[in-house]
TrEMBL record:
<dbReference type="Pfam" id="PF13561">
    <property type="entry name" value="adh_short_C2"/>
</dbReference>
<comment type="similarity">
    <text>Belongs to the short-chain dehydrogenases/reductases (SDR) family.</text>
</comment>
<dbReference type="InterPro" id="IPR036291">
    <property type="entry name" value="NAD(P)-bd_dom_sf"/>
</dbReference>
<dbReference type="InterPro" id="IPR002347">
    <property type="entry name" value="SDR_fam"/>
</dbReference>
<protein>
    <submittedName>
        <fullName>SDR family oxidoreductase</fullName>
    </submittedName>
</protein>
<dbReference type="InterPro" id="IPR050259">
    <property type="entry name" value="SDR"/>
</dbReference>
Length: 262
């Protein structure tokens, strides 16, 4: 299938590693020109070098910390200078610290709301006029399977990412007649550094060995294994594609069947 992404311009947040990098690679493999964003210049430069060596879509990078007050303005300028415009926005953010609802202090809520919700919404709003004018746009927001089945000891993530579900559905209905889609991609246990960190935190909290924690988690996944970044990224590339023009307002789970909800 031709995804129609050749020459499309994509901004991919938090793409120095993990899921964000996977999506950036998948888009570039389909011919899109991607702008990677993150806080590690060395890692971003290496990623761009590897993507550009493939000879399909081009990759550039820009340093950016979504927690900074000037993040949105910096990204708008970077899109203009490095891409010359925007067709695809991939909203991806790091996860908050693990913890229970009692651990959700006012300071923590405010800090992570700024980086996980506020910046996502304000950046999307800043780039929407360009998409409306050209009659094409793809907005893909990466969240977590915790928005459909809350994950134990991830109260902050369950709460804040769920706010984006309502926002995304509302946005999708408002921009559909401009040729713009807005979808959410929900990872289950995709093998990334983040999963390793969470497993380590779970082992420390419960007093179990890391091996036992991982074995127990695999038992909850019908597929019987962790997902691959490439599998997750392929779903993301499709949602950003031209053939997916009639898919909007959805939350797509990539979790090996782990979520028990219908």
């Amino acid at each position: 299938m031709d995804l129609g992404l050749t020459g499309k311009r994509a901004l991919v947040l938090a793409s120095s590693r993990g899921l964000g990098l996977g999506i950036a690679k998948a888009l570039a493999a389909e011919g899109a020109n991607v702008l990677l964003v993150g806080r590690s210049g060395d890692r971003l430069a290496e990623n761009c070098k590897a993507i550009n060596a493939e000879g399909k879509g081009k990759a550039e990078w820009v340093w950016g910390d979504i927690a900074d007050d000037n993040f949105v303005a910096a990204m708008v300028n970077a899109v203009k200078e490095k891409l010359g415009g925007i067709d695809i926005l991939v909203n991806n953010t790091g996860g908050p610290t693990p913890g229970t609802t009692e651990d959700m202090t006012a300071d923590k809520l405010d800090t992570f709301f700024q980086s996980m919700v506020l910046r996502v919404i304000t950046l999307t709003n800043a780039l929407l006029p360009q998409m409306k004018e050209q009659g094409f746009g793809r907005i893909l927001t990466v969240a977590s399977s915790g928005v459909v089945e809350p994950i134990a000891n991830l109260a902050l993530s369950n709460t804040l990412r769920s706010a984006l579900v309502g926002w995304n559905k509302t946005l999708a209905t408002e921009v559909a007649n401009f040729g713009i889609t807005a979808n959410m991609l929900l990872p289950g246990r995709i093998h990334t550094d983040r999963i390793d960190e969470l497993d380590g935190a779970n082992a420390k909290r419960t007093g179990k060995s890391l091996e036992d924690v991982r074995a127990a988690s695999l038992k909850t996944i019908p597929a019987g294994r962790l997902g691959k970044v490439e599998e997750f990224a392929a779903a993301g590339a499709f949602l950003c594609s031209v053939p997916a023009s009639y898919v909007t307002g959805t939350t797509l789970r990539v979790d090996g069947g782990a979520s028990r909800s219908i």
